[in-house]
Amino acid sequence: MTTSNKSSEFTAAEGRSHVKKIIGIWLVVAIIADYFVWFVYGPHMPPGAMTDQARGQQFDIKVISVMAIPVLLFIWTFGFYSIAKFRGGKDRPDGYYVKGNVKTQTAWYVITATLVLFLAGFGTFELIVPAGAGGGEGPSPIWTPSTPVKLVVQVIAQQWRFTYRWPQFGGMETTSINLPINTEIQFDVTSIDVIHDFWAYQLGVKADANPDVNNVAFAKTLQYGRFTVRCDELCGIWHGAMYNYGKVVSQTQFYNWATQMQRQNASVTKLLPKFALTYTPSYTGAGGGYYPSGDPNGTAA
Amino acid sequence: MAIKTTSFASGGDGGRAVAGEKKGFRLNAFTGLIAGGLGYLFGHWMGNAIAGGYQQVIGSGQNDIAILLGFIFGTIGWFLGLGILNYPLKKMAGIEPPLEGYEFEPGVMKYFRFTLDNKVVGIQYLFGMLFYFFTAGLLALGIRTELLSPTNHIWGPATYLEIVGEHGTMMMMMMTSVVMGPFGNYLVPLMIGSKRVAFPRLEAAAFWFTPAAYIILLSALWQGGFQSGWTGYAPLSIQQGVGQDAYLFSFALLGFSMITSSINMTATIINYRAPGMRWSRLPMIAWGMITVAFTMLLSVPILIDGLYVMGLDRSVQTAMLYAGHGGSSFLWENLFWFFGHPEVYLLALPGFGLTMEILPVFARKPLFGYRTAVTGMVGVAVLSFFVWQHHLFQSGMNPDMRPLFMLTTELISIPTGFIYLVGLGTLWRARMRFDVPMLFMLAVFFNFLFGGITGVYVSDVPVNVTVHGSYFVMAHFHYTIMGQLIFAVMGAIYYYAPLYFGVKLNEKWGKIHFWTMFIAFNSTFLPLFALGLLGMPRRVFEYAARLQHLNQWVTVSSYVLGLSLAFFVVTFVWQLAVTRPKSPLNPWQSRGLEWQVGYPIPPGNFDKIPVILSGPYEYGDPNALPVADLTPAEPSAVGVSSGGEI
Amino acid sequence: MSKGARAGAVLVSFAVGIALILYGIFGYLRSSPAVVSAVPSASQPNSVNLIMQVDGAVGVGPHPNWVGYWVQDASGVWHQTTLVKVPVNTNVHVTVYEYDSGGALRNAVWSQVAGVQGGTVTLNGTSLRVINPSLTTGNGIAHTIVVPGLGIQVPLYGVGASAKNFCATGPCNTSEAHTVTKFSFFSGNQTHKYRWQCFVPCGLGYLNGNGGPMTTLGYMGGFIEVVGK
After folding, report:
1. Higher pLDDT, residue A251 or B645
2. Distance CA B196, CA B187 (A)
3. Is residue B22 very low, low, confident or very high in pLDDT (cuts 50, 70, 90)?
4. Mean of the pLDDT values across residues B501-511?
């Protein structure tokens, strides 16, 4: 193999000059990018600030972005600089013979480990402080809101619709959802068939709806507005059509709406099973007879 | 064992049959198909005889027992018809069987047979994998076509989910072998200086699982499909029609393929290295293969167990995955992701193996930080077993574990970052040559960066609340798999075509393919991050009207991506089958041992076991020894293994 | 093989491949149940009639023992489908003949009537706002028609389990045991494709009763497409 790799060809001074240029370019673009991320795009980042939890998620996205984007830009700067400068050719057959560099490698290990450990710590803090960050915490939540929960909404998922039960309003069940402003809300999410996922995008709430499991998530409403509820776990043919919209309204409006619905639905509420945290399909009739009726639960499911 | 490797002419004539071998009819893929079909009919008949009167079967008009027995006997028939079972069955019967499969023959027919040459298996895998990849890719275009409009539908909602499930499952199960199959099997023995692999029968059988899995999985489309996606969450998957049986059976078959392939790969790399092939000289592809093989061996059995449980729940009404009767739907989620997360890394690691193998050749520099690279790959493989619940952050199971899984997931960026350190270090003051393979390798780093950086977002639990199950996650893993693995594979095809086929693929066509694919890929998948952040869930056929323009952009880009890949298929097949542009030997001036044996490579790979003299990446060192002595005086006198004796 | 022959073989293979793909798309994946359009009469341009029936077993097609809907077209022919088209800005008068048996509801909220004119449906001549699934022993709600996008919720009361001349295969006719539910709704002022489904898990032999006909277009769910006049 031919080679013209004489040590004089790759001087240390030339190397330092490359490093300076790369770092210089990177610093400039990274600072500009971070400015835009934090101050220009930051306030508009998803999922908004309709609840305390959504605001926390938005903050996390901003923090991760200002840390991640310089990393991305460093690799880009280094990569594109290399492509521009370190090109081969007929008279330049082989590159700099170097198989490692203790200082560079150590610096890389230390910097990446520091970033990663900081993000893990930061994420944990952001998970615990806003009461589970809007995620479903299962039947016995360990991160609960600091102020008392004022409203409990049970989300019942079924193939292929969400319905909502309101234990504080006579256990009525509705197909629509409205929420009062400035209220600590507890969502009890469950399913009466397969796994679904209750995703109220603007509220920053997401919790899987599992059959026979009560999955609890918290959110504190802060802003008025419309929010979208979508199913976020594949649940069969109409998964894509399993959505509805809700509104965060004033506390008076909410109370009026809820009491009106309670009156309107009274005759149906009587037919519903007693309010419970989960509803086993076996007990609630109209099954497919997949499991034989002689099973311990008594009714075919 | 007495194999007549000595009767081959040295350095060539690879395809010539050994004189005196028997001629005449031999079993092949077509006899396999016939026997497989008969096996299916027998199994189906048996299932109807057993379960035709079951209450559940009468009610639904659907007999999962018959379908599953059909698949089982169909697969046995396929293996019998291919002759894969001849050797073990005769051994069991106490008959010393002839060593079928070592008879090297000219022409293309050997590619349709159970053949024990690692290079034939490699080529079988290459074409098999490309075929599976393009099938699944076409299905992806079907998905994108539906999403042109938020409300007007090209497919029915059920058909849409069938296509989504087929695309996801086909890609995720088949692409686990897209590197180990065509490149691992073909190259590892050549790279480590062995005349053969450790378990050629397992290696060949691993390939022949894949067509059976492909046919069975695709058959689901004609049986109503399965609407549960590639994740197959229970109890939805218990509720589904018989298409779900095709899902679980084909996935399990591919699982067996991965296990057999991995056993062979680990045994070969550990035991069949030539003298002087120290661990510190092992090529990066071999490191990629051994880390992946271990990951597969430890994770795939869990998947097969889970699928078995699903099969029982579906066919004989056990209730292991159904909460109402004492089971748990969390059980499947845990079993599945205990395999599923290592799986995404076992898709990524071989891509890195290929990239780090090829990068130094075109940078004309040694690989920077060889030990860091190896540590990175081993680190990723080990950590991959401790992160699976990050798919289940909102599932409702044990919230107290979330900080731990967040930490382990974030930690995995450290070893992944090592690979970037190696890549950047290798580019530092290089003398880069921008041939087509190099362009693909640089694109691997570019693309994976998006996948890796967004991985940090996804692993953060609060951010995960918004992005879980959305297009953000979908874009993230397409960047890590398609952007990394498939780009690496494409580059490797251009790189290894001279070695495999003696053909150097046209540079200009290659560059057209690369640039269109690179731009269209990014144009397809970058906007998906935005779609996810704006609230679009995965696997939906209806979406918010405000997202239509972005979706249309993505769909049109995906068509360009499809055309780019179609361009590759046409030019690749045309050059291999019609024009055959002859390549010079070792056109890239690689130091790799695999390039030193010449073309065509003889069936036994090496005339004599070589003695390895130096590492494979010593570019730029004027005093570097050649990588190996191919004609040593005493071939097996020293070193770690005398491996290649057969 | 000569170069020309190889080129020919490659081209033929490509052609066969493309043909197979096109067949897969158009011969199979694009197939769909029939679509029935409700057309207004000349005398009453702002209203259409939609006549449907629900059978315990559709009797035809690849799954004859599944439950399913049938829709009658303008010429009186029954089609086994769940895909209908109605004009925009139109009062749609629906008559549903229910031939299947009923039972308890998985979620009793679907016993409520909503989104229809007057807030009531007429069941066998009686006007009701809620249909109690346990109105009579051995009977209950058989199916429902729910169109979330239009807010429509209509429970369909079933045929008693002890009924004689129970219809075994579709399409059934009115000489067999049935109930009749009538209701009207306004199709709205914009064209749109609304999905609708039954909320009674009626896929017998499937887990939770939600497989089979419940997950197949043309049986227990489909689209009501509101089209321009």
Report:
1. A251
2. 11
3. low
4. 95
| B142 in C contact zone (CB under 8 Å) | yes
Domain annotation covers residue A36 = yes
On whether both A61 and A113 belong to a single domain, the answer is yes
Quick one: pLDDT band at residue B476, thresholds 50, 70, 90?
Answer: very high
What is the percentage of chain A residues whose pLDDT exceeds 90? 72
Choose the mutation target among A59, A194, A216, A231 for the interface with B, i.e. most B CBs under 10 Å.
Answer: A194
Residues B185 and B125: their CA atoms lie apart, in Å, by 9
DSSP string spanning C13-41?
Answer: HHHHHHHHHHIIIIIIIT----EEE----
Which of C141, C210, C224 has the most A C-beta neighbours within 10 Å, making it the best mutation to test the interface with A?
C210
Query: Do A26 and A126 share a domain, yes or no?
Result: yes
Distances (CA, A) of B20 to B105, B452, C7, C57, C71: 12, 56, 34, 66, 72
E strands, C61-136, in order: 68-72, 78-79, 83-87, 91-98, 121-123, 126-128
| pLDDT reading at B209 higher than 70 | yes
pLDDT tens column, C43-83: 888 999 999 999 988 888 889 989 999 999 989 999 999 99
pLDDT at residue A258 tops 80: yes
Q: Using the beta-carbon criterion (under 8 Å), do C206 and B235 form an inter-chain contact?
A: no
**Residue B320 maps to a domain:** yes
Could you tell me the CA-to-CA distances from C139 to B43, B251, C207 in Å, in that order? 41, 44, 22
- Is A242 a domain residue? yes
- The two structure tokens encoding residue B165: 């499930």
Q: What is the CATH number of the domain that holds B252?
A: 1.20.210.10
Check C209 against A290: CB less than 8 A apart.
yes
Q: Which residue has the higher pLDDT, B644 or B447?
A: B447
**Do A110 and A189 sit in the same domain of this protein?**
no
For residues A261 and A246, give the distance between their C-alpha atoms in angstroms, rounded to a whole number: 15
The answer for B 528-567 residues in CB contact with C (under 8 A) is 542
Could you tell me which of A157, A200, A183, A198 has the C-alpha nearest to residue A255?
A: A183
- pLDDT of residue A6 exceeding 60, the answer is no
For residue A284, the model assigns a pLDDT of 44
B241 inside 8 A of chain C by CB: yes
Question: In this predicted model, which residue has the larger pLDDT, C42 or A289?
Answer: C42
Distance of residue B488 Cα from the nearest chain C Cα, in angstroms: 26
CA-based nearest distance A175→chain C, Å: 9
Interchain CB distance below 8 Å, C210 and A301: no
Question: Which one of C107, C130, C208 has the shortest CB-CB distance to A301?
Answer: C208
Span B468-497, average pLDDT: 95
Residue A238 touches partner B, C-beta closer than 8 Å = yes
- Print the domain residue range for A159: 151-280
User: In the prediction, which pLDDT does A296 show?
Assistant: 47
Contacts of B522 (CB under 8 A, 6+ apart): B447
Tell me: pLDDT of A8 over 90. Answer: no
Do residue A126 and residue A229 come from a single domain? Answer: no
Quote the pTM value. Answer: 0.92
In total, the C-beta contacts within 8 angstroms joining chain B to chain C are 77
- Residue B3 belongs to some domain of the structure: no
> Crossing angle, helix B329-363 and helix B370-383, to 10 degrees?
170
Looking at chain A, which residue has its C-alpha nearest residue B540?
A240
Maximum C-alpha span of chain C: 83
Which amino acid appears at position B520 of this protein?
Answer: A
Distance of CA B29 to the CA centre of its chain: 21
* B249 contacts chain C (CB < 8 A): no
Within a domain: A125? yes
Domain membership of residue B52 (yes or no) is no
| Domain extent for B315 | 116-579
* Residue of A154, A155, A160 to mutate, interface with C, max C Cβ within 10 Å: A160
* A293 within some domain: no
